[in-house]
Amino acid sequence: MSPCRPPALYGILALCASLALGSVAIAQPGPATAPPPREAGNKPAQVRTLRLPESPYRYANIELPSHFKSRTVRDLDNTPRDNPITDWGATLGRVLFYDTRLSANNTIACASCHQQKHAFSDPAGRFSKGYEGKPTDRNAMPLVEARFYERGRFFWDERARTLEDQVLMPIQNQVEMGQDLARLVEKLAHEPEYSELCKKAFGDSRVTRERTAKALAQFVRSLVSYQSKYDEGVVQVRSRNDDFPNFTRQENRGKATFLQRCASCHMPQQQDAIFSSQRAQNNGLDADAKVADLGVADVTMDRNRVGHFKSPSLRNIEFTGPYMHDGRFAKLEDVIEHYSSGIKLHPTLDGRLAGPGRVAGGPPGRGGTQARGFRFTSQEKAELVAFLKTLSDQKFVTDPKFSDPFEAK
After folding, report:
1. All domains of the chain in start order, with CATH
2. Alpha carbon 393 to chain centroid distance?
3. Is 264 helix (H, G, I), strand (E, B) or coil?
């Protein structure tokens, strides 16, 4: 997910808002490059060889647990009819995702800012870095559960209308990957592995812009995490409100606090599987519209959307720091503290965080007169962290079908 926001609207929006608001196994694998460690900067990428099994990993029609099979969860799935996940399509997407040839100087891949062991997020610092080592405007979003976002819009500011649109934008962004898409397609078309993979995925060997987008989107939609301690527990009880038999007392108490205070945003529509808020919101990070990054408003030019950002999934949140669009919170405990005592009043603050509450003072918020810091006790904070760590899925972050398919020569 591209960390950069659209530059053309930014300055205009900042001024307007300030005034308005006051403020396959490939038979003959060819050489390629895989993402270098981030600390390698812009050093020449190591030459690698593509290694895939003769039969593809299973990406399509995976057997999900029962809590993923409800009508509510199915309705959140944004997979389009013309691009269902297929085993070979997602395999092609996986190869593209890890191929540094997608960047202008062959130094970084999508996986450079979306690392599997960090649940496809970027741990390198507050702001992700592009192919020349320059910082972008934001921290790259985790990719877990991208499939289960009914609105189907992507990036922190939701500027991409579909995942198929989104996956091509970082490639072309002049800070992130700096690649010319027509040149990229031409370059990949000359690589035997891509011709063969396209034939397996789409029926013939043509490498096109549309197929590049579809394959990448298929791989990203395949990144579904469902084998955590939470998933093991929820199928053993009649109601998510019951104590999970595989949880500690601390984890069950944290679950109870989460369901009472947090689930209205992070477990939408009373389902038990998806931990992704289904719309961009203002969660009180800043007090007014004078900050540089206006979120959704940078795209829509709507002053009522200033400070609204899409929320990533909470699954595997233990691995996805730093947190928020600008990486301002280094630790999970910092995030809990924000919701406990750090929520800032703002004219567009989400109504569930605004209203008669526990933090006094300040101008009216959209949903009421005061921000509502939840004022968790020290024990509640520790319990919430313990519960959130039950969403960690070690199988997901180590699954070979999501891993780098390139190996050193």
Report:
1. 24-225 (1.10.760.10), 229-392 (1.10.760.10)
2. 16
3. helix
